[in-house]
Amino acid sequence: MKYALKLVLILCLSAGIQAYAQTMACQSTSTDGNQFVPSIGMVEVNEDSGGRYIYQWMYWHNAERLLWLRSYIDTTYEPDAFFYNYDGKAYGDRPGGYWASNMPSPYVDTQFGDPSGEKAVTIGSGNANLLTPGRWYYTVTRMWAGRGASSWIKLSSQRGVQTPTGCTSTWCSFGCDTYNNYVTIPFQDHFTVPGCRKYYWNYYNTTRAAC
Description:
The protein is mainly beta. The chain has one domain. The protein is built from one helix and 16 strands. It has one helix at about 65-70, and strands spanning about 10, 15-20, 40-50, 50-60, 75-85, 90-100, 105-110, 120, 125, 135-145, 150-160, 175, 180-185, 190-195, 195-205, 205-210. A six-stranded antiparallel sheet has the order 6-10-4-3-15-16, with no helix packed on it. Strands 5, 8, 11, 12, 13 and 14 form a six-stranded antiparallel sheet that branches. The chain has a two-stranded antiparallel ribbon with strand order 1-2. A hairpin with a 4-residue loop joins strand 1 (about 10) and strand 2 (about 15-20). The longest helix has 5 residues, at about 65-70. The radius of gyration is 16 Å and the shape is globular. The model is unreliable at about 1-20 (pLDDT under 50).
């Protein structure tokens, strides 16, 4: 789920009711990015004999940087990656094929409800309260090729909640309705993939650099 609205159909069989939701109110709305955005992150996008792929790595250096995610049992987290497609030439189109992550209860995020100008390829965590500081986490997924041989990419960290509590799939992960997304690598950087980029978020300083 991204900053764009993500509509999810929840079928309540016992009541025969169909309910729709977008973002959700979180238990705390006074957080800032320092309570869930990684201290250090890195993204590598490339192509090999198996096709195009995207790797991400994330590191939270202490417990305070995970404070919001670890304070509640129903938190989710997504290190969103968006391929610039406003010109119709995104490098990555959508997830497809092999994927893996060592984040707790990982899932492949859906593009349902996303704008066509930004192609999201993301692996999320359905149990973000189990993330621990001082450990490197990763996500990797193959993806369908977009129409471009290269394109810009944007990274954004999103905090969210499970609805209903206990469900860890992509269809149960909703971004918080406030303070839910912090961009760590903006399109304005014009970082072009294939390539590799790392970022530091309020970890001594906030900056981006080549890998």
